TrEMBL record:
SUPFAM superfamilies: Globin-like, Methyl-accepting chemotaxis protein (MCP) signaling domain. It is found in: Cell inner membrane. Residues 361-423 form the T-SNARE coiled-coil homology domain. This is Chemotaxis protein. GO terms for biological process: chemotaxis; signal transduction. Keywords: Cell inner membrane, Cell membrane, Membrane, Transducer. It is a multi-pass membrane protein. CDD domains: globin_sensor.
């Protein structure tokens, strides 16, 4: 006996559909077939009037088809043949109900309507002992046997239908779970793939950025080291330049003292020359006036010549000092430019003086010989003294300017030395910071490797879930 047959026998025994009950039911099969159409008509009228059940039928033809199937199935129930054909029929009904979503409450109500109709017809026919044509009157025992058999058969059929409905629903639930699990696995797989693509890309970019950062930091450290070395050399050179400028300043002060002494002597010489001029003018007033004019012009020419000579000398000295001082001697370059401008002006003045000297020479030739010679000598002496005095004064002023600029250059060189020390310290600090950045970038690269390992482990767990 198969499992299905075993279960069917157990249900029949439990519900009380033994051989005698099945014979009593089968004996009334013709009666059931006769009254069933009207009962089913009333049942489907109820279905039409109920929106919740009417929606399961597409048309009247659909209802008529269901009507015929129900009539056939209830006729099979009345035959009391509980075999494989019956089980297939009730299984088809239960699966159909599950497929269309007809809830048990509706077809339990259907069983109640049909069963109530069959019981009513049986009682109406047999009660109270109304005899059938050509037969003995039917007692209540027979009627109760029929009603009991109908109720048991209907309950058995309903049991099968509900069980099949529940089995189908459970299978649908399991299928939904299987499908949900498949979709979940696919979703997890897709999520893992997307996560792997996103996080792995981030990890790779972090690792790449860490490598680039490390390379940049190493380059910074190398540059900082070079800067530190160069700043050390520059600091030494700046210190030497400061020492040289200080020496130049001291020498300039000594030159200033010498120039002051020369100026004093020139002043005394000028006094003596002035006395000689006064005595010469006493000899001849007119010649003295001419001599004075000649002296004035000669002094102008001599002054211009001396200024030009001194200017050239200053220009040469300024150029030399500027070249020696380097960046700190930029102030000397300014002085050199000023001296060059003064030289150009001196050249123009000399040209003008030449014209005046020519006129004075014509006047001088008309003067007397001896007095003219004496006067010229005195005038020349006075002019030379005046020129020397002016040149010495100019040299003194220039020397003072040089001394001042030299002191400023020394101060600037000292400031440069201090700045170079600051640059050296900054380069050293930059080197230390670069080393820290290298260490941090290496740590970041290790963290990126750890992140990749964690991501790989996470993806393995997700894909295995």
């Amino acid at each position: 006996m198969s499992t299905q047959d075993q279960q069917l026998s157990e249900r029949l025994a439990f519900i009380g559909l033994d051989a005698e009950a099945r014979r009593a039911l089968k004996a009334e099969a013709a009666f059931v077939d006769a009254v069933l159409p009207a009962i089913l008509d009333r049942f489907y009228d109820t279905i039409r009037a109920t929106p919740e059940t009417r929606r399961f039928f597409r048309s009247e033809d659909h209802i008529r088809g269901a009507h015929g199937a129900q009539r056939k199935h209830w006729s099979r129930i009345a035959q009391a043949e509980y075999d494989a054909g019956y089980v297939d029929s009730v299984r088809a009904i239960g699966q159909t109900h599950a497929r269309i979503g007809l809830e048990p409450r509706w077809y339990i109500g259907g069983y109640a309507v049909v069963l109530e109709g069959l019981v009513r017809e049986a009682l109406t026919r047999d009660w109270p002992g109304k005899p059938r044509f050509g037969q003995k009157p039917v007692g209540p025992e027979k009627t109760s046997e029929l009603v009991g058999a109908l109720i048991r058969a209907a309950m058995l059929d309903m049991d099968f239908a509900i069980s099949i409905y529940l089995d189908a629903a459970e299978e649908a639930r399991r299928e939904a779970l299987r499908q949900a699990e498949v979709e979940r696995q696919q979703m997890l797989q897709d999520l893992a793939d997307r996560f792997e693509g996103a996080v792995s890309g981030i990890a790779e970019r972090v690792a790449s950025a860490a490598c680039q950062l490390e390379a940049t930091a190493r380059s910074m450290a190398e540059i900082a080291g070079q800067t530190s070395d160069r700043s050390t050399r520059v600091a030494a050179a700046a210190q030497q330049a400061t020492s040289n400028v200080s020496m130049v300043a001291a020498s300039t002060e000594q030159i200033g003292a010498s120039v002051a002494e020369i100026a004093g002597r020139v002043t005394r010489s000028s006094v003596m020359t002035d006395e000689a001029v006064v005595r010469a003018q006493a000899a001849n007033e007119t010649l003295g006036q001419l001599a004075a004019s000649a002296e004035t012009v000669g002094a102008l020419v001599s002054l211009i010549s001396e200024i030009a000579a001194q200017t050239n000398m200053l220009s040469i000295n300024a150029t030399i000092e500027s070249a020696r001082a380097g960046d700190a001697g930029k102030g000397f370059a300014v002085v050199a430019d000023e001296i060059k401008r003064l030289a150009a002006q001196t050249a123009r003045t000399a040209e003008q003086a030449r014209d005046q000297i020519g006129g004075m020479q014509r006047i001088a030739r008309e003067s007397a010989g001896a007095i003219e010679d004496i006067r010229r000598i005195i005038e020349d002496l006075a002019g030379v003294s005046a020129a020397i005095k002016d040149s010495v004064d100019e040299q003194a002023a220039t020397t003072r300017d040089i001394a001042r600029n030299t002191h400023e250059a020394a101060t600037g060189a000292e400031a440069v030395s201090r700045d170079i020390v600051i640059v050296h310290d900054a380069a050293k600090h930059t080197g230390q910071s670069s080393s820290e950045v290298v260490a941090a970038s290496q740590a970041l690269e290790r963290e990126a490797d750890s992140l990749r390992e964690a991501v790989d482990g996470f993806l393995v767990s997700v894909r295995a879930a």
